[in-house]
Design a protein that fits this description.
Strands 4, 5, 6, 7, 9, 10, 13 and 15 form an eight-stranded antiparallel sheet that branches. A four-stranded antiparallel sheet has the order 8-14-11-12, with no helix packed on it. Helix content is 27%, strand content 26%. By secondary structure, the chain is α+β, with helices and mostly antiparallel strands.
């Protein structure tokens, strides 16, 4: 498994500014080769390319301003994650996964297998009081005059948790202490035992705002999607095959959201969200990354990554292999 050590500089792949550019008009992700090709096929997209180039510095500036000026509604959330915030079933699954002799068969008895074929699993993650507290904090921040970054190119409403200051107290211990023991057993071939970075954000769906999410795959080895609330109808997740499969969405699998429960799946699994019917839906999404895997092949351009230094965890790439990783075990 990944071990703690000296801080490493994380990077992104240069393809971030040329591959998988989202064109909302068509609901498609496209590749940028040159301006002539782009204009001919889809119209001007220079604004999106430039937005991506400036994303790191602008995000760092927002984070610094929020840290100096924002007054949280629930300051207790900014302290280290406590076991009391986590569902008993989640704690039990983690405890089993770290016990001597733990194996996949035993872990599967402690969570729900949504699809054995697609390797999609679900289990309670957070308690109801914690979900409520986190929602109160997110709404308080949403109503503040603080600057806000978009969660990603497809979602216009939500919060980037590293900008809000919740990465270190909440998401990092969630990944290191609780998720990695599970993913090491569930996804050993996807870097589940070598997770060393993440990107976490909350997405919001509501009438008059974002209502659905088009089919896509994640820039992550693994993804955790936890429904936080509120009251809503519709908006189910749907899953196809892996993005490399030509008929990946022939028979999509639909998965309903359950507040407090998390869905675990491979980042390469094609998925999306059906239209919201009524109410508001807030979900915490954590893209889990393993540099031991992505340093060899960028999941977005499917090539050896062309590394560019970035802020924070970047896109999870590093310029060196973790010294404790036997990469042969991942092939």
């Amino acid at each position: 498994m990944a071990t703690a050590g000296a801080p490493r500089r994380f990077c992104r792949c240069a393809c971030f500014c040329s591959e998988n550019l989202y064109v909302a008009r068509y609901g498609l992700h496209v590749r940028f080769r040159d301006e002539q090709q782009l204009r001919q096929d889809y119209g001007p997209l220079e604004q999106e390319v430039e937005r991506r180039r400036l994303l790191g510095p602008e995000s760092a500036a927002r984070k610094a301003l929020i840290a100096s000026s924002y007054h949280p509604a629930r300051p207790e959330l900014y302290k280290s994650l406590q076991d009391a915030a986590l569902a008993p079933e989640f704690l039990a699954a983690t405890e089993y996964s770290t016990s001597p002799g733990a194996g996949l068969e035993g872990l599967l008895q402690r969570l729900e297998t949504v699809s054995e074929e697609k390797r999609i699993y679900r289990l309670p993650v957070f308690t109801a009081p914690f979900c409520q507290a986190l929602l109160e904090e997110l709404e308080h921040f949403e109503q503040s005059d603080m600057p806000k970054g978009r969660p990603n190119t497809m979602n216009n409403y939500g919060v980037l948790l590293h900008e809000l200051g919740l990465d270190e107290p909440l998401v990092t211990p969630l990944r290191e202490r609780f998720l990695q023991p599970l993913t090491a057993l569930l996804y050993p071939d996807c870097g589940g035992g070598w997770l060393d970075s993440h990107r976490a954000f909350v997405v919001k769906y509501a009438l008059g705002q974002d209502r659905e999410l088009g089919c896509h795959y994640d820039n992550a080895e693994l993804t955790l999607n936890v429904a936080l609330g509120k009251t809503f109808t519709g908006g189910a997740l749907y899953f196809g095959g892996l993005f490399q499969a030509p008929s990946a969405l022939a028979e999509p699998l639909e998965v309903e959201h359950m507040v407090g429960q998390g869905v675990l799946h491979r980042g390469s699994q094609l998925h999306g969200a059906r239209p919201l019917g009524t109410g508001e839906r807030w979900n915490l999404v954590v893209w889990l990354r393993a540099s031991a895997v992505r340093n060899r092949l960028c999941p977005m351009c499917c090539r050896k990554p062309d590394l560019v230094d970035d802020e924070g965890f970047g896109d999870g790439f590093t310029r060196e292999e973790p010294t404790t990783v036997d990469v042969c075990a991942l092939t």
